[in-house]
Amino acid sequence: xxxxxxxxxxLSVPEGENLVLNCSFTDSAIYNLQWFRQxxxxxxxxxxxxxxxxxEQTSGRLNASLDKSSGRSxxxxxxxxxxxxxxxxxxxRPGDDKIIFGKGTRLHILP
Amino acid sequence: xxxxxxxxxxxxxxxxxxVTLRCKPISGHDYLFWYRQTMMRGLELLIYxxxxxxxxxxxxxxxxxxxxxxxASFSTLKIQPSEPRDSAxxxxxxxxxxxxxxxxxxxTRLTVL
Lengths: 111, 113
Hints:
The structure holds two protein chains of two kinds.
Chain A: E1 4-5, E2 10-14, E3 19-25, E4 32-38, E5 44-51, E6 56-59, E7 62-67, E8 72-77, E9 86-93, E10 100-101, E11 105-110
Parallel strand pairs in A: 2-11
Antiparallel strand pairs in A: 1-3, 3-8, 4-5, 4-9, 6-7, 7-8, 9-10, 9-11
Chain B: E1 5-7, E2 10-13, E3 19-24, E4 31-38, E5 42-50, E6 53-56, E7 65-71, E8 74-79, E9 88-95, E10 103-104, E11 108-112
Parallel strand pairs in B: 2-11
Antiparallel strand pairs in B: 1-3, 3-8, 4-5, 4-9, 5-6, 7-8, 9-10, 9-11
């Protein structure tokens, strides 16, 4: 059974620092992996999607990497800003039309 | 476009009562998804529809839960009877293409006393 883990559950970082969020999954047979952002009281917004054949995706200050063989993905945020404060969720698609989410990392950027 | 609309945003009810959550997807989106989010279990896919037809309901926790999509612009998730362990935030999402490109609604926070 596929399980997705995100550690740590919460993280506080001073503004301006670069940071890395981690995601691990137990079964490497995935179709793709996606990173989402969730703001308090709101739904999820997709940030980056990495297909299983890809190693990384970039959007602005965000870079997501995927190492399928080791069951790991990272989300790198450069030059963090207070507006980056949110919960970040990682999700894998096992191959069929299912999606399995991690419980997220709650990020707080200190001004 | 207003995005995915969910109502109510907050619902407080007593154990044993029927609860109906509503969702209006983005116009033109053929897929609709229902999720439940709790601290313990995280975000879980309950059921999804394609062109108003339920495709996969394997995530529905038990027979007390049912979902319908009578037309392309409306879906409901019903819990009857409700129990305290059903307390969670329920999200609806829609997509033009499938599970990889979902647009989430703001969620309904359900509290069952």
